[in-house]
């Protein structure tokens, strides 16, 4: 039999005493679940989910002993459903109460397991959110979810700890290491960089100086052999502001851009720094920022980036053909 206990709050006015009645079952409340619900709970204990088929062919989950549409007895045919399912509707709980299954925001959802015609109500865990948070954009009707079963199960609906979204994206770490052999032309260019010089090659047809050296002119398709040493100053022609971190960049956001070195006929892609990203502009005059001589090797890393110099911007008309 249940026992009733009464607690009274202290007050100076007995007529306004608040009474809190609590109904308790000290030994627990035992009831028979019957063969239909019993089968459902037994399957949950074993990590499976089943529904029951009605005479009309519908599969009810959770199963009941009668068809809620007709009132007729179900067939007794059990059908394994899920484990995945579809959210048919949901309600976000931004501030859980102490009785709730989570102490952080979560959702209650009606979930229709695959193979079922009805849905069951359960908690949906979408991750860790601050108290009072708004529902995430990933929470929506139609999302696919799967049950998270408890390690120790006893045959109750609580054997499913919650439902979790199906994995739809991954973000693995990826890296690729390789050694680049530059060939004769690029090798000669890197020899110059190792000496603090920027060397290009002049095309015998269009007479444009190509840097970095390629050994041929990309415009005329002819070999290039005449070397020309270029200045390490130039003009920004185009650029992009980047908000994704890069180990070579000094900070985020950083600017990568094409620089037309003085005397060159082609632009060179490089970092641009020494000035806030929102102040970089087309036509800006820049100069190579070389690392200390003791750090030089045979690579473009000898130049950290290009940075502004105190010279007037180059008019657009003079660089428009290098965009």
TrEMBL record:
Residues 79-148, 227-291 form the ChsH2 C-terminal OB-fold domain. InterPro entries: ChsH2_C (IPR002878), ChsH2_Znr (IPR022002), NA-bd_OB-fold (IPR012340), Thioester_dehydratase-like (IPR052513). Residues 191-223 form the ChsH2 rubredoxin-like zinc ribbon domain. Transmembrane segments: none annotated. It comes from the Bacteria. This is OB-fold nucleic acid binding domain-containing protein.
């Amino acid at each position: 039999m249940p026992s009733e206990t009464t607690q009274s709050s202290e007050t100076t006015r007995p007529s306004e005493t608040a009474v809190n009645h609590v109904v308790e079952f000290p030994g627990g409340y035992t009831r028979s679940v019957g063969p239909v619900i019993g089968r459902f709970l037994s399957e949950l204990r074993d990590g499976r989910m089943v529904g029951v088929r009605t005479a009309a062919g519908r599969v009810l989950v959770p199963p009941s002993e009668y068809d809620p549409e007709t009132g007729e007895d179900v067939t007794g045919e059990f059908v394994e459903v899920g484990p995945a399912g579809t959210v048919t509707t949901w309600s976000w709980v931004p501030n859980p109460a102490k009785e709730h299954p989570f102490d952080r925001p979560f959702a209650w959802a009606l979930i229709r397991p695959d193979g079922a015609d009805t849905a069951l109500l359960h908690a949906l865990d979408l991750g860790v959110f601050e108290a009072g948070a708004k529902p995430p954009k990933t929470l929506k009707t139609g999302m696919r979810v799967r049950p998270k079963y408890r390690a120790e199960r006893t045959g109750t609906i609580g054997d499913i700890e919650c439902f979790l979204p199906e994995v739809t994206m991954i973000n693995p770490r990826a890296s690729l290491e390789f050694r680049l052999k530059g060939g004769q032309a690029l090798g000669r260019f890197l020899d110059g960089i190792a000496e603090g010089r920027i060397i290009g090659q002049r095309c015998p047809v269009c007479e444009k100086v190509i840097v970095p050296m390629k050994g041929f002119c990309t415009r005329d398709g002819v070999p290039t052999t005449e070397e020309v040493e270029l200045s390490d100053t130039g003009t920004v022609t185009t650029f992009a502001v980047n908000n994704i971190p890069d180990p070579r960049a000094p900070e985020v956001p950083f600017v990568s851009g094409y620089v037309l070195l003085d005397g060159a006929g082609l632009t060179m892609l490089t970092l641009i720094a020494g000035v806030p990203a929102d102040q970089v502009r087309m036509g800006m005059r820049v100069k190579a920022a070389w690392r200390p001589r003791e750090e030089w090797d045979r690579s473009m890393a000898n130049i950290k980036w290009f940075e502004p110099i105190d010279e007037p911007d180059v008019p657009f008309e003079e660089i428009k053909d290098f965009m």
